[in-house]
Amino acid sequence: MECRRVFARSAITALLLASALVFRSESGLKSSTTTISYHDTSLHGSMNSVNSTGSVNVAVQALQSSRHLAGRGARGKRFLFSRFSYYANADSNFQLTRIVSSGDVSPNPGPTGEGNNPARCSGCNRTIARNHRAVECNHCYNMWHIKCGKVSPSQYNYFYKDRTSKWTCARCLAPATDISANIKNDLCKGIELDSLIPLKNCLHTKDVSIVHMNICGLVRHIREIKILLEYSPVDFLAVTESHLNAEIDDREISINGYKIIRKDRPNGSPWGGCALYHKENLEVHIIHKFMSDDIEAIWAELILNSQRLLIGCLYRPPDDSSFFNRFDEILGKVQMTRKNLVIVGDFNADVSNANSTATSNPMGKRLRATLYSHRCKNVISNPTRVTQSTKSTIDLAIVNNPASKVSNSGVLDLSIADHKTIFVTYKMKTKSPGFSIKRVRNYRGLDEKSLQEDLHDVPWWVTSLFDDIDDVTHAWELLFKDVLDTHIPTRIAKIRKKSLPWVTGEIRKEMNKRYKLLRKCDGTRNTSAFWEEYQRTRNKVMKMLCEAKSIFWLNQFKKAKNAKDFWNTVTEVMNLHQKHKQTGPMQHSSSSELITSKTGKAELINDFFVNIGKNLADKHHRREHEAQTTDLSDFYNRVTPTISDLSTCKLKLASDLNKLKPRKAAGPDGIQAKDLVVAGNSAIDGLNTIFSKSLKNSRFPSKWKLARVAAIFKKGNQLDPANYRPLSMLSLPGKLLESQFCRVLDKHLQTHNLYSNNQWGFRKGRSTETLLISMTERWRAALDDNKTVGAIFIDFRKAFDTISHELLPLKLQAVGVMGDSYNWILDYLKDRSQFTTVNDSSSSTKPINYGVPQGSLLGPRLYSIYVNDLPDAVTEGEVEMYADDTTAYCIGDNFDTVTQRLNLIFKQIYMWSQRNRLSIHNGKSEAMLLSTKPLIGPLQELRYEENRIDFVNSSCCLGIEIDNKLSWSPHIDKLCKSYRKKLGALRRMPRLPPKVLEEIYFKTVVSGVSYCIPVWGGCTAPLFNRLEEIHTKAARLIHDLPRDRDNTHVLQKANWLPLSYMYKKAILKYVHQAFYQAGPAQITELFSVKAIKYDSRRSKQLVLDRPKKEIGRLSLRHRGTMIWNSIPSSVKEYDNVILFKNRLKQLSKFINNFTFEKESSLITNKSPHFYYY
Fold first, then answer.
1. Which of 138, 265, 929, 1046 suits 55 as a labelling partner, its CA being 20 to 30 A distant?
2. Which residues contact 8 (CB under 8 A, 6 or more apart)?
3. Beta carbons of 409 and 384 less than 8 angstroms apart
């Protein structure tokens, strides 16, 4: 069979060659001999044996040659006269033939040159001998010694092994070679920071360098810390008195090339605290058993080959007298289990000899006694805290074997904080972080029009001559990449960490002046003048840094030409696009051994991701339910409409190409999203050929079934692979093909209403907000009727990864997916594989036999179909689903009745999950009883098998915190915390114009706070006013308004509307949908239209219900009816939602002034000011 395939494809190759010649003749090119170069540039390799890929390569290269000769004239020389690499031992006839045919005369030509003139280096102009190591520029074709071209030996070896790699000299690169597109200025040249010179001299060795400083506020000094770590070889930076709390995100204090470990005070106090920065290339993990809330300390272990070093960062508050007892206990545990130990920190206990008496310095004496009892020693002897009149040694570095392991230690003045900096170098050889080398495309100077013309001229129809979809895909990829290589050449680039472009030479001069003044104020007498001048200079440096950063980002915003550039700048200034840090050591669940090698970690995580679905499915699948799994004829054999038209749509493809985000990650095939974006509509014909062939033959290209997985840490123990989330990067053309199939599938499911009415995901007009509105409004109505609601929030463990490939086909048939579409999905799931990348190292490729691919477009839809019958399996209540988020509930008269029904519901769900081989996550599933009545007596337990589900007072559902009273108080607390955190980040941003800050605020802060506002907006006025206060505070901050003005005046001055206006407007949107029946049936059923025949002015009114309790009067149903009836009838006449929203903008003042007091006070005869706004 394989031989027949080879001969068949060889015949197709001949056909393609003939097609190429015909294409040349039709283009008007004179007949000439066509030479086709076979680009095999391996050093000692031979031509590959004829196979399918080789024949496609030859055929495609024939087309490439003819196309370039016919369409682009002289550019065809690139294919006809391409040279082959230098062969040092070209002794075989085959190699000789290849060299001669490529244009070289000698079988061993040596360095390229003209005639007898030897090649010369373009840098030093000296002759390049045969034994010299040299590289050739891909653009100017000049030769360079590796030293002159600044190519390291490791890079040279890389180019030597991979002869397809291209190198570009510095002259051709102008002006930058940095992939991160850093803005370079005088930061890397000119004035040297005097304060960093001593530190560089002390840390020049390859030993582990540990630096500590009491920073007294990390956020306010983060600019100077970045400068320190940018230009000093520091492995660990321990910071005490970080003054961090939960409102400060890690992104605000992150530093490129470093990871951070934080230990904030547990009570949320903005004082004290520790932080530990370490280079991300080091294998470091947290030792949780030594961490405690009783002591402010961080314990992290460094692993270098077979050696381990425990590093502690510790802070002792001055008034903590019981610290030494806890420290003595922890130090005893550490000494028993760790051989190498370094503890740095601020102990606030002076150990200097000048203050060594017991009466004047009891803390210092007690600390020295503790260290002596554990055979530890402090290696810092000079004063670390110097004021105008005192000196003390309170910042210490404690080690347990100083004589044999500490190579250097001391105290330095860096003039960053009021404490001096201490350092220790430990005799353990560290790894050099080096730099990452990556092949990237150079888009500079790209002519998009010329690229699209070339793509349009490519005869894509030739790919349809192949029968096998994999051959079609391979041929398309070769043709597409060849055009890209012509217009967007690739190059090798170094990935460097970003610099600090706002630090200018003037600022560096002031920093040096500050450093010299601090040296003069070294605790000597009569230095008050120097101290005052030092303080003025210190404040000046802080102000200059702040202003320089603000001016830099202001200029960046001014350079933004469109909305895309603006939001790219916002992402940079707010550090929203934070790069994923490198993964530290990991541990297998069945072994205590730590894995530190990059490949070992990649293999471990990949094995976990590949096997987790199968392990869970096998563990929770019971043999006694197998008969029930297959005996579902009443459901699976019912007659349903099938998909008839499985075809492609070029308009849909064009729309998908336009929606592609240029920064979207590429798949294993290396085709970037930006490549497809710049190709535009010129790529449609080629892609449509593949897509049509795929859908017609019910085959998904094998190359697009491979996934590259990145492991993203979630939370918990970093050693456990279970705490990492798989992020799959699939082929982008493959995802475009998925989009074509999803278009057909969605249309089929929605047209024939085959989705369960309780499934809210991936359906037009439905969202998480509509689901929450429908569910909570039913619960409000039940509570208003004095009933009790029982809810279960269910989490399926690794739901997407555990879908059975044996049961999914039955589910597909149940919704009419048969024939070609059925076979296409089966082939889509068949023979999938993945590899995991950790720290730029990849694991081996392994097959996936369970689950649906995460990161795909089709995967969530297949999961929705898989669980589509779950609501039918529950007869004792209702089940609402949004993809894998599942909520079941029931309504009853009392707690006992509801609890009994909840047990029956959970038993039914559990039986369904066993039949369908899904596993319920016991730790994440919760139950809740909602009622306005007090609970008296014990509750019946909610159980399944040996597991118990806990009853909670509040639970997070689809991002909203729901409590058992529907008061929304926990959610408002959560929102306020998040609101203050984001507002604090906005306040700490560089000074920018109010218009810029205002746009950032509304589109990044308010958009997140207003999520599902129609759901939780029905809270009481005091709760809602808490958010209004923060909203007003943001207006004061951005527009620099005084604090003594009231909220209304501040919002008017800023020309802002309150958050309550957003709530009322969102309510009107859903009432409008319900009135014209444009939304889900569950939302439409909430409202009733008045039956009025004659009075046209009231013909579009809704029936206002009469709630019994306050919870009913706060409902969307009641409030929506009130505000709808109050707006003019002329506005209600617009059935188009866009026109309706535009008319509401004209009524913004009326809507803002509208309150829910009048009608409610008439109903209740109570004062309404507490509940309505």
1. 138
2. none
3. no
Residue of 913, 655, 900 whose CA lies nearest to 797: 913
φ, ψ dihedrals at 727, nearest 5°? -115, 105
The SS3 call for residue 702 is helix
398-434 pLDDT, tens digit per residue, is: 998 777 788 889 998 887 888 899 999 998 877 666 5
Model confidence pLDDT, tens digit, residues 269-303: 778 899 999 998 888 999 988 888 888 999 999 99
Rounded to whole angstroms, the Cα distance separating 310 from 303 reads: 9
Q: Tell me what pLDDT residue 1058 has.
A: 93
pLDDT digits 0-9 by tens, 1083-1139: 999 998 876 555 555 668 899 888 999 999 999 999 999 999 999 988 998 889 899
Alpha carbon dihedral 866, 869, 871, 876, in 10-degree steps, equals -130
**Residue 673: CB partners within 8 Å, gap ≥ 6?**
660, 661, 662, 663, 664, 665, 666, 732
Contact 440, 491 (CB under 8 A): yes
Q: Of 479, 450, 482, which is closest to residue 465 (Cα–Cα)?
A: 479
Give the C-alpha separation, 321 to 762, whole Å.
60
Residues 6+ apart with CB under 8 A from 31: 25
Q: At what angle do helices 563-573 and 528-559 cross, to 10 degrees?
A: 150
- At 85 the pLDDT is 35
Number of Cβ within a 10 Å radius of residue 422: 26
Cα gap 854→801, rounded to integer Å = 8
Residue 30 φ/ψ, nearest 5 degrees: -65, 145
Number of Cα atoms under 13 Å in the Cβ half of residue 147: 5
Task: Flag whether pLDDT at 966 surpasses 90.
Answer: yes
SS (H, E, C) 749-776: HHHCCCCCCCECCCCCCCCHHHHHHHHH
Measure Cα distances from 974 to 924, 980, 1027 in Å: 19, 10, 11
Per-residue pLDDT band for 53 (boundaries 50, 70, 90) equals: very low
**pLDDT tops 70 at residue 449:** yes
Range picked from 200-214, 869-883, 1093-1107 for highest mean pLDDT: 869-883
- Looking up tokens 């700490």, which residue turns up? 988
Angle between helices 448-457 and 52-72 (to 10 degrees): 120
Mean pLDDT value across the chain: 79
67 closest CA partner among 464, 457, 649? 457
Per-residue confidence (pLDDT) for residue 498, from 0 to 100: 59
- CA separation (Å) from 894 to 793, 875, 900, 934, 1053? 20, 19, 10, 11, 52
* CB neighbourhood size of 941 (10 A): 12
What is the SS3 assignment for 610? helix
- What's the Cα-to-Cα distance from 669 to each of 485, 493, 599, 1032, rounded to whole Å? 15, 19, 21, 50
Determine the 3-state secondary structure of 482 from DSSP.
helix
The one-letter code for the residue type at 90 is: A
Q: What is the pLDDT of residue 1123?
A: 93
Task: Give residue 171's pLDDT.
Answer: 61
Question: Which of 142, 164, 146, 145 minimizes the C-alpha distance to 155?
Answer: 146
| Strand stretches in 264-360, DSSP E | 274-279, 283-286, 296-304, 307-315, 341-346
How far, CA to CA in Å, does 1104 sit from each of 475, 778, 1066, 1091, 1117? 66, 17, 19, 13, 9
Residue 595: strand, helix, or coil? strand
Alpha-carbon distance 1001 to 982, whole Å?
9
Confidence of residue 194 (pLDDT cuts 50, 70, 90): low
For a pLDDT cut of 70, what percent of the chain falls above it?
79
Query: What's the confidence (pLDDT) of residue 163?
Result: 60
Contact 687, 695 (CB under 8 A): no
